[in-house]
Structures are given as C-alpha cells and as structure tokens.
C-alpha cells in the first residue's frame, strides 16, 4: 500500500516549525495577530511583555481557540518554585515553555519530573521543556561581569549539554550557535532559534541574524520570528515567504 498520500510536503513540515512572537501589550492586539495568521503558522510565542500585561488568561484563551503556545517566561528560581510554575504552565495547556539552564541540573530535573507527574496524574498533554543557555544579548564581557570566565560559545555548549543531561527537550539557540550545537547534542534535541531575518528585511535591533533557509539547513528545528511577520503590511504573505525559505533549508539540510 502506498503512503505517498500521507507524506507531508517540506512546506507543511516547515509551517509547523515556525513560531510567531506575540510581542504586544494587549490581549486584543495578540488576538488580532493570531486571527490574521491562524492556520498559516505552527505556534505563537507569549513572552514576558504580553504575559505581564494580559496574564495567563490570554494563554488559556489562545489554547482554547486551538492555538499551540510557546510560553517564553524563562523560569529561573529555586527548584521547588520553578517546578511549581512548570506544573501551572502545563495546566495552561502550552505546547512549549522554557527555563534558564543556569538554574542548574537539580532545578531542571525537578522541573521535568514535576511536569511528568502532573501529565500522568491529571491526564494533561506534555509540553516540550526547553532551556535558555546564554542570552544572545550577553557577550564575553557580560559573562565576565557576572564572574563567568568561559567564552560565551563555550558556556552555551556547556549549558546545552547540561540541559540534555537533565532530560529536557532542547534549548533556545542563536543562529550562530546552531551549527556547533547540532554536532554536540543528539539529533532529537530541539534547537529553537530566534534572530531570524528573511533575505532583504529590516534587522531592527537584532545584530547577529541568519536567514530562515540557512538556519534550517544548519539544523534548527523551530524558528522564532516576530517583527518581520507582525510588522509586515501582509503578515500572512510574509509568513508564507519565510516558510518557503525554511522549506528550502530543510531540503538542503
Ligand atoms: O521581532 P523579532 O523577530 O526580533 O523577535 C524575536 C523574538 O525572539 C522576540 O520575542 C525576542 O524576545 C525573542 N528572542 C530573541 N533572542 C533571544 C531569545 C529570544 O530575539 N536570544
């Protein structure tokens, strides 16, 4: 029996891998963007700005509307507190959330264990748990300020391997880290990459960017894109162009 009819095209695979950042300060703006892009992209990212303004209600509303949500709150606290927050994120029904890997091995293992326990006990869907290694706004001198003598790429690698050992699903990685990390971690360890700019678009405040095609070809699993889509005259068209570039990268990767 042929399975050809069931095979997804690279475009369909790429669409699932595009996460649009909802960096706005009201629930209605977020809903408007989601309304424009619904079915055109794989996931939406709710970060500190929208969460601080609109609270968990916007997350549950979007989840109830059928959207997949990456809750980007970068939890970093004592293990018990992060584990508790992780259970609440799981109850909200998000598809992905993150913690800071610099919280350490125990913080991360306790988080994953608490998520697994609530998934089993309460019959919830298991979100992907990923970690931030070194923020891309930090460089070697920022690390030195806080007493870390390692070079930033070495620190990124160290924290990514710690994250993998702690049993998390992946890390957020800048485009320039993806190639090195892809070789260091297992193939199913997720690399989620912001700092993406399609060829010819405005860099805004991003400094070290990469095109969607290059990032996918280098081994990214998910791309996070904000303004190139949300500030475009036609966000749906902008998203489709990015997905087309991602699909080319997947085919070349
Ligand atoms: O608008 P733009 O495409 O620059 O948005 C990128 C999104 O990814 C923003 O929400 C930003 O906070 C987030 N991000 C980033 N760099 C990181 C981590 C997250 O740009 N290292």
Please mark out the parts with pLDDT under 50 across 5 or more consecutive residues, or reply none. none
Fraction of residues in β-strands: 5-15%
The biggest sheet, with number of strands, parallel, antiparallel or mixed sense and barrel status, is: 8 strands, parallel, barrel
Please tell me what the overall shape is.
Answer: globular
Specify the helix fraction band.
40-55%
Q: Let me know the number of strands.
A: 8
Sketch the topology as an H/E string, one letter per element: HEHEHHEHEHEHHEHEHEHH
- Report, as a whole number of angstroms, the end-to-end distance: 29 Å
- Summarize model confidence as the mean pLDDT: 95
Q: Kindly report the spatial arrangement of strands forming the biggest sheet.
A: 1-2-3-4-5-6-7-8
Helix-and-strand structural type: alpha/beta
Number of DSSP helices? 12
What ligand molecules are bound, each kind once?
cytidine-5'-monophosphate
Output the radius of gyration: 18 Å
Give a short overview.
The chain is built from 12 helices and 8 strands. 49% of the residues lie in helices and 15% in strands. The mean pLDDT is 95.
Notes on the protein architecture:
The longest helix is centred in the middle third of the chain and has 18 residues. Strands 1-2-3-4-5-6-7-8 form an eight-stranded parallel barrel, surrounded by seven helices. The protein is of the alpha/beta class and about 250 residues long. About 50% of the residues lie in helices and about 15% in strands. Strand 4, helix 6 and strand 5 form a beta-alpha-beta unit. It has twelve helices and eight strands. The model has no long low-confidence stretch (mean pLDDT about 95). Cytidine-5'-monophosphate binds next to strand 8 and helix 11. The site of cytidine-5'-monophosphate has 16 residues, from strand 8 and helix 11.
């Amino acid at each position: 029996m042929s399975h050809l009819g069931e095979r997804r095209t690279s475009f369909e695979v790429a669409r699932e891998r595009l996460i649009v950042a909802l960096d706005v300060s009201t629930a209605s703006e977020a809903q408007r963007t989601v309304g424009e892009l619904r079915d055109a992209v794989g996931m939406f990212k709710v970060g500190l700005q929208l969460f601080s303004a609109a609270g968990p209600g916007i997350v549950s509303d979007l989840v109830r509307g059928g959207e997949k949500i990456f809750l980007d709150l970068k939890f970093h606290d004592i293990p018990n507190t992060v584990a508790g927050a992780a259970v609440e994120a799981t109850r909200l029904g998000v598809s992905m959330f993150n913690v800071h890997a610099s919280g350490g091995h125990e913080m991360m293992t306790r988080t994953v264990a608490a998520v697994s326990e609530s998934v089993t006990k309460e019959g919830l869907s298991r979100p992907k748990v990923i970690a931030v290694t070194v923020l891309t706004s930090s460089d070697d001198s920022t690390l030195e300020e806080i007493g870390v003598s390692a070079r930033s790429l070495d620190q990124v690698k160290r924290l990514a391997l710690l994250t993998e050992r702690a049993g998390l699903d992946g890390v957020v990685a800048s485009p320039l880290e993806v190639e090195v990390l892809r070789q260091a971690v297992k193939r199913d360890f997720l690399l989620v990459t912001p700092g993406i700019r399609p060829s010819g678009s405005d860099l805004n405040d991003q400094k070290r960017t990469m095109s969607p095609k290059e990032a996918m070809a280098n081994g990214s699993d998910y791309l996070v894109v904000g303004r190139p889509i949300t500030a475009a005259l036609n966000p749906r068209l902008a998203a489709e162009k990015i997905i087309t570039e991602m699909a080319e990268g997947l085919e070349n990767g």
